Model the fold of this input.
Amino acid sequence: MTDKKLAFPFVVEPFQEDYTGRLSWSTLGNHILRVSSLHAEAHGFGYTYMKKHNRGWVLARLVFDIDELPQTAEPYFLSTWVSRIFGQFTDRLYSLTAPDGTAYGYGYSTWALIDYETRQPVNLEMLPDDGFHAALLDEKVPISPPTRVRVKDDKLVLKHTAVYSDLDINGHVNSIRYIDMALDSFPKSWHDERRVTRVELNFGNEGYCGDRFHIYRETLDEHRFAVRIIRPPRDGEDKESVIVRCVIHHRER
Amino acid sequence: MTDKKLAFPFVVEPFQEDYTGRLSWSTLGNHILRVSSLHAEAHGFGYTYMKKHNRGWVLARLVFDIDELPQTAEPYFLSTWVSRIFGQFTDRLYSLTAPDGTAYGYGYSTWALIDYETRQPVNLEMLPDDGFHAALLDEKVPISPPTRVRVKDDKLVLKHTAVYSDLDINGHVNSIRYIDMALDSFPKSWHDERRVTRVELNFGNEGYCGDRFHIYRETLDEHRFAVRIIRPPRDGEDKESVIVRCVIHHRER
Done:
């Protein structure tokens, strides 16, 4: 029987770091998506099952809290397990650890399963044969719940038009690219002095190639800022769409 | 003794593809830089040597010719060796092969070694102890030399301002991001119908965070286009700088 919690080994390889020499959030994010996919596949509710049933997983929320990211050449493990099924959603948790078991940090994510025919989310509690309840593991992660934020005074800090290299295999803008956009809204001097310690993302509408994004940012306090990525109205639309809302925590280097 | 030609094993992992499900040029490019670095290190002229002598390798030219890139989950080998030392330059060659030895394609690159104190390139034929002549391997790659192009009628097709996520560990815009910019200058519909089979890049000035880039493109014929990436004058500069010139070959899917 497949373990409920699976640990995947990685090494920080050159060109997987940011300019400071630590694993980039971008690479970490893609590894998070990848281990989620590998774990789901190993438990029978991954890509093979989804392709057969014309369904697909959609990431609704991602929180990752980390004291310090590993440096170039350092090995690490990214572990994942499913902790909860509630209505249309399921929670998947993560731990990022050094080979000796010391935690770099933890994360959690919430996913919905979309039926491509009806375009509606599936009730995960009512799947045939008890769905993937057998994979559930009652283990928590020791990080705070997401910040509740009322964005009051944000300003437009960056514009980006989605291009070919932003797309994932579904033809959508890769969810992790929105973390890049949030961090790219600051100049290098900001990054020289600060280290990001936590990201909280809430995903709204999907982005597509050619979409214009407006990135709005508000400073919440000395160690937190909020970002709102919206898509201004496209031809024939009368209002903007919310793509992502996020809160990012940082500290001095 | 370390083999003159080293083969590095890879697998096309999820999120290393483009939206068509094949290894992205972006990932391939970073793997090219990585195996170059690993090979140089194994032969004693890599990062450890360079750090000690305050020098660094700079990529001057990259050509990669490939019939078809491998698909998700397919294993492949990227091999590299050094074929030539001439004055201030050295040629490094590549082959990309399936596990059964079938070639996906080949590449070559030209590098200069910069002395950080003098900011000048070092004469590679005159290094102490015969430099790295012992690593030379007289094996060619069966691909055409770069296209000679006079760009006559190009037009501005994309603008990009270099951001945090574009930077490599040296704080420069990662050389491979320029391939993305060239491919990003086309909409998804172009990529839906075509497959890139060859890239030829000539690198000029380094790009830095905050730099503005203007991407100019000219259609050369049915299967080729040229791209020129320039940086308009910065404060205090009186003329633009050429960052990259490239030619890209493509065919129908």
About this structure: Chain A has a mean pLDDT of 94.
